[in-house]
Specification:
By secondary structure, the protein is an alpha/beta fold. The chain has six domains: about 270 residues, 5'-nuclease (Rossmann fold, 3-Layer(aba) Sandwich), CATH 3.40.50; about 80 residues, no CATH class; about 170 residues, Ribonuclease H-like superfamily/Ribonuclease H (Nucleotidyltransferase, domain 5), CATH 3.30.420.10; about 110 residues, Taq DNA Polymerase, Chain T, domain 4 (Up-down Bundle), CATH 1.20.1060; about 180 residues, Alpha-Beta Plaits (2-Layer Sandwich); about 70 residues, no CATH class. Helix content is about 50%, strand content about 10%. It is built from 40 helices and 22 strands. A six-stranded mixed sheet has the order 3-2-1-4-5-6. Helix 1 crosses helix 2, helix 15 packs parallel to helix 37 and helix 31 crosses helix 32. It binds a DNA duplex (11 and 13 nucleotides) through helix 27, helix 29, strand 15, helix 34 and helix 35.
Length: about 1000
Amino acid sequence: MTEGNRHMHLLLVDGSGYIFRAFHALPPLNRKSDGLPVGCVQGFCNMLFKLTQDMDIDEPPTHMAVIFDHSAKTFRDNIYSEYKAHRPPAPEELVPQFPLTRSATRAFSIPAIEMEGWEADDIMATYACQAKARGWKVTIASSDKDLMQLVEPDGSIRLLDTIPRPGQPPLRWIGPDEVFTKFGVTPDKVIDVQALCGDAVDNVPGVPGIGVKTAAELINTYGNLETLLERATEIKQNARREKLIANAELARISKKLVTLEQSVPVEIDLDGLVRQPISPGTLFPFLKAMEFATITKRLAGLLEANPDDFEADPDLRAGGADAPASLKSTSLSVAKAKLAAQTVPGSGPAKFAAEEHARIKAIPVDYDAYEIVNTPERLAAWVQKIWDVGRVSIDTETTGLDPQQADLVGICLSTQIGEGCYVPVGHVLPGDLLAGGGLVEGQLPIRDVLDALKPVIEAPSILKIGQNIKYDMEIFWRYGINLAPIDDTMLISYALDGPRYNGMDVLADHWLGHKTITFSELAGTGKSQKTFDQLDIAAAARYAAEDADVTLRLWHVLKPRLAAENATTLYETLERPLAPVLARMEARGITVDRQILARLSGDFSQRAAAFEAEAYELAGQSFNLGSPKQLGEILFDKMGIEGGTKTKTGAWSTGADVLEDLALKGVPLARTIVDWRQLTKLKGTYTDALPTYMNPRTGRVHTSYSQASVLTGRLSSNDPNLQNIPVRTADGRKIRTAFVAAPGKVLISADYSQIELRVLAHIADIQALKDAFEEGLDIHAMTASEMFNVPVEGMPSEVRRRAKAINFGIIYGISAFGLANQLGIARGEAGDYIKTYFERFPGIRDYMDEQKVKVKADGYVTTIFGRKIQFPNANSGNPSERSFVERASINAPIQGSAADIIRRAMIRMEPELKKAKIDADMLLQVHDELIFEVPEGTEDQAIPVIKRVMENAAEPAVRLTVPIQVDAHAAKNWDEAH
DNA sequence: GCAAGGACGTA
DNA sequence: GTACGTCCTTGCA
């Protein structure tokens, strides 16, 4: 990048200075719809935009950032407790505008930077210093005299005063000459002068009685502060000499206070500040939320965009992110008009997305353009290319599918569509297990490759794009590399289209019309399938580089759709930040006690064998108890039991409910089978299988979470599934006792109480339910009491059980048929229950009708956080399919909103725990429950923080109108903690 | 060797 | 009646 250095120009804006200027210079202004004070935000936007326009005329910056003061204390408070002590607290109406100015900055696609413990001046000093080291030019938009110490004699670092002053030009540069006019010294001596004269505003003491003029004279005479203080006795004037000697220490402290720190550990490096074009999809949702009509109009003209294509940012608009209008409104025409405005590819982001799609799709895949990297020079060239472009699509090839076990075999990269490279590092020669192959020639040493790539993979300024990048994050962690920041095409697709097109092969086929090489084509299938390290490098490279190339293409196609289809907030708040959280949970794993499981296996297998013998006895023959087919034939054909039903494929139904029924009717074999099935299920799926998942490296079990496979936004867990560990039966719970805390630790289980019913009460706005939750009542008993006119006191458990079934039925999109089945009552009776329920809670029926209408009209329903859940066959010609969609569309906003809430809790959990200085590891998520591992004895500190984060997770995006309750317990094992 | 269907574990 | 993943058998290649 040395070639371009002459033209690099960094513009740093003193954000806090701008805020206060806007505040003092402008009349107050309140947002029309809710009175939120926004005058300062508006002024800030105007000033920021004007600055970029003015600068672009003759000195366009190539890099830019707005730097803010962080409200917390800084290192200067430790040096001098009185520092800035005279500063009054910020005016009340200014406080809510602080975060909004950050949002404003980001809306203009400019990085907004602030750091706890540092003043904006220190951060600016650091960036200026870094930029100077690279030979860049630096402009600091600020009139703060404290920054004058940064001015360079050669003018490479200058300040820019933009405060309008009558009779003066709008932009006034502050270079060495201006500094000399102000302080009477060259910029490098400014801090010495300030150390002597102090600063009344910041309460920097200085030496009492010495002003700027005297200070400058002294410093110019003695060269610098230290020399002056050492030789103070030589000063002729009595008063001046005495003051200096008496206050030497105060002067030294003052110097420390005014000296700006130039090595702040900034999280974003200079490359991350590269100037971005203003994106209408980012800008207009903000401006509309603020209701800045004039700026909106002006910028729409300049950007040639139509603001009507964008909706106000739901997190910022008046009333906060309330339920989307579609949930509240039954007006179909409104919903349809909105949909049309979003998707008509005639203008704005939708047009851009459509054009990008067409452009990318037309570029053919050329396998010959891919490169195998096996020299340090070529690797270095790729690294340089990544720095230049600022982003890279990346994929790892490994020996297996388990990110906690698979070893790295190669890395593929692509920075530009149509290009791609493969860096093989772990391909082995054929050989038996004992002879052990050895590495194939022509590969760079893995350590060299990782050392070369680590800086870009960890660079905050380089975006790493992947398909299911959580996998690659975990692989790289095991090699000591922290992959961040990320974008994930799988998650972008999920935010847009749900789990419909999961998988890169499907995405490539659907969006690019390109069939990728499949792993089976490359490595074979089944038992003879090769692992990646056994593949020929040339063949592997085509497959691998194609993956990186295609991922980059998909990113170009899918990313613009986020803005075009209003899914940016969903992706940025609920998808992208969750991936690294899940990666860490997977990497941690959980300890499982092998011995407990082994003992249970033995017990279950003995008892199952007894049931097996009993079953043969009762059946009068032996048969495969695991075969529903054979069992059906014995029960209904051979034994001639009446009343059997058939499944849709014509086989006898032998499900647990059928067998339970038969058992009650006096068929002892049915009971035996039920018992046998339960035990063999527990043994086969849990006590036998779980130990095989124990990772030999960590000794723990690491599940894998799928973030993008559930229609409603829930997670799913696999290999092994730790979201269906038994809990309902006594035998089942014994399995939970095998999930234990590591030595010296305890597990905490924290679960949302009745989260879905609470969400339902909120969405459907059911006052009676809300009141019950507000008063902390037993919700099922209360429902029963309302429906059956029975007092809660002394209520028969059967009555409560029925009400509970109805409550769940409501959540599942109730039908008389289903409820009757569940409760074992007649269809008519179940229908009466439902009717009564609707009479007692009339809002429920309205809610259900709204969802049904909406799904038919729009093809989707939404959660309270704006996640769309699509049902492509909502208008199917098949009546049973249609009713199925109706029920699912009733359930999806409830299940999905609850899922979004716990996602928000998970995303916030780690930083909040860290802030509270709690050492707690989040290990598992089971839909409404989070499992943590904490040092023994710290559970009482951890639990309140965990509860607080979970209970407030919806805020501030959504203000729920029901209280959310979380119950948390600690114990050595999961069974006791739950 | 693989896919589909049935059964069953969870929220 | 919603949403999942896993184990096992069966039937076909």
